[in-house]
Amino acid sequence: THYASVNTDMTKPILKTDNSLRELGENEVLVKIHSAPINPSDTYNARGVYGKLGGSTDGHGIGFDGAGEVLKVGKGVDEGLVGKRVAVGQLPFTPGYEGSWRQYLITLKDNLMIYPDDADFDKICSSFVNPITVCTFLHHIEKNKYKAIIQTAASSSLGKMLHRLCLDKDVKIINIVRKDEQVKALEDLGSTHTLNSNSETFKEDLAKAIEELQPTALFDPVGGELSKTILMSMPTFSTLYIYGSLDTAGTFTYNNRELLSKRATLTTVFATDLAKFCTPEELQSYYELVSKDIYEGGKIFGTEVVSTHPLSDFEKAIAEREASASQGKIFGTEVV
């Protein structure tokens, strides 16, 4: 029996007998899932924040990332893919979304990153959500020729990836966190400008760092007044890229005069945007950038493995993940 984590009432996920296996269509593959991480977006999805993503009439699958082995391929897919270890992207609102928190997954070949046969499933299963989101940021950084940026939630797994990528690409970055120990952790990763937003001197420290680096892009998953404080302190013609709403109770209040005076731009960014911005060849180059780095040790895109749980214990895994949000990922493994 195959199980899937399915949200039936849009408030709480459950385990359910999975009857979704069928004959493969064109360009589809069947993957046996071995590992799947818990991203913040997965916990939101598990509570129905994104609405019903799949075509099922009784809820939808959970899980935007995963890794496993290709068991079968459909028409138009090279038979040589059978037996390969792959990372699977089940990003929200993509065609054929089913969710990766299941034993077996049918998905499109284009949703795979192919890895060498000795790749570690736990290490490659976080190849899409955070890495491809960061690659989307990189696309904007390079396209707009940003020399310096700011990011909030810098102590998160994604934040650390963006920090390391900026170091690699020689882009100056101001990291915003909420605790002094997070400041120290980023400094240990080579950060020269990490600020605690809860510090009494935050605004003064922010103004000083902005004056020195002149950042013109802000990547923000927090929202609320923190976003406004930072954006209104930045140089004219700066852009706020919104990719989350961790401050669920906060609001971003402004008037037209403020935005006009700063010539500020507000926009949203999502991992699925990358395929829209890029040619197939460019998208493949980003996939190769991510997979090569993760396979060789994850200097930029690697994610720490905190613990693993069987799929049947996913509620416990979610609780553990939320208690250690900045320490890495909790991985769900196959049901036995």
Structural commentary:
The structure is a single chain. Helix 3 runs parallel beside helix 4 (157-169). Helix content is 32%, strand content 24%. The strands form three sheets. Strands 3, 5, 6, 7, 8, 15 and 16 form a seven-stranded mixed beta sheet that branches. It has a six-stranded parallel beta sheet with strand order 11-10-9-12-13-14, with helices on both faces. It has eleven helices and 16 strands. By secondary structure, the protein is α/β, with parallel strands linked by helices. Helix 5 (180-188) links the parallel strand 10 and strand 11.
SSE layout and pairing:
Elements: E1 3-7, E2 13-17, E3 28-37, H1 40-46, E4 60-61, E5 65-73, E6 85-89, E7 104-108, E8 112-115, H2 121-124, H3 129-144, E9 148-151, H4 157-169, E10 172-177, H5 180-188, E11 194-196, H6 202-213, E12 217-220, H7 224-231, E13 239-242, H8 256-262, E14 265-268, H9 273-277, H10 280-295, E15 305-310, H11 314-323, E16 329-333
Parallel strand pairs: 9-10, 9-12, 10-11, 12-13, 13-14, 15-16
Antiparallel strand pairs: 1-2, 1-4, 3-5, 3-7, 3-16, 5-6, 6-8
Brief summary of the model shown:
Helices cover 32% and strands 24% of the residues. With 336 residues, it is α/β, with parallel strands linked by helices.
